[in-house]
Amino acid sequence: MRVDILTLFPEMFSGPFDASIIKRARARGLVEINLINIRDFSRNKHRTVDDTPFGGGAGMVMAAEPIFEAMDWIGARAKPDRVILLRPAGRTFTQAVAAELSRERHLVLICGHYEGVDERVAECLATDEISIGDFVLTGGEIPAMVVVDAVSRLIPGVLGEETSVAEESFSDGLLEYPHYTRPREYRGYPVPEVLLSGHHENIRLWRRRQSLLRTLAARPDLLHPSLLTPEDRRILLSVMGELKELLQ
User: Is 112 annotated as a binding residue?
Assistant: First the structure.
């Protein structure tokens, strides 16, 4: 996959993309990340990329011209599959959206700044608008890092073990079950016995139950009936029965 990131601050990306899994994916040619400085496409001598908003108001707005020019430069070399504007008005970024984007070959991420971006960028250039949550950041650089990280790890070959992706939180709509490793007991806190039993079916059922319990406690909004299997329903009914007994 190729990812072009249009930003005013390319230096912000040097740490996150030069370490760990993303670094290895880049080294192996599985992910190509290009940082494009929007200021390089400004046509004035001061390389300014913002201006006051028409109609008045506080703050400055990122101008359309340098972003359009940057997209012309990208398009002359390769036509992107998706052009994503990162801003609060976009659809919320989820694991499902990450999986959707991971199937593309070429993404362009546009990092907004200041009070926003000239609306013509959204209307004429962007195919998608994405937000990473209901909060305000200083710019689109951190959201771009989040999107690249979440999408890259879903590309075949990026992670060593493909099964780990399938079992992660949100991959099937639920939060992931708890994990343990050596030692078997630490400071009086033991590992659940079922995980030491070697009984694969009992371990699978325990993990599914824990996943459902964790989701029920922390994110009940994720327990959509259409996503629950008959086994999930039986587990939840059993949990509800146990809770009822405890409350009596």
Answer: yes
Tokens standing for 17? 């993309």
Is 194 marked within a binding site?
Answer: no
φ and ψ at 73, to 5 degrees? -65, -45
Strand partners, 189: 186
Task: State yes or no: 134 annotated in a binding site.
Answer: yes
> What's the pTM?
0.88
Top-tier CATH class for 2-152: alpha beta
Which residues on neighbouring strands pair with residue 229, listed in sequence order? none
Protein fold of 185-247: Trp Operon Repressor; Chain A (1.10.1270)
The residues, ordered by sequence, that sit 6+ positions from 121 with a Cβ below 8 Å of its Cβ are 62, 64, 67, 68, 85, 110
Q: Compute the distance between CA of residue 248 and CA of residue 8 in angstroms, rounded to an integer.
A: 61
Question: Do the annotations mark residue 118 as ligand-binding?
Answer: no
Confirm or deny that 4 is annotated as ligand binding: no
Interval 49-64: pLDDT, tens: 999 999 998 899 999 9
**133 annotated as a binding-site residue:** yes
Q: Where are the domains of the chain?
A: 2-152, 185-247
Q: Is 136 annotated as a binding residue?
A: yes
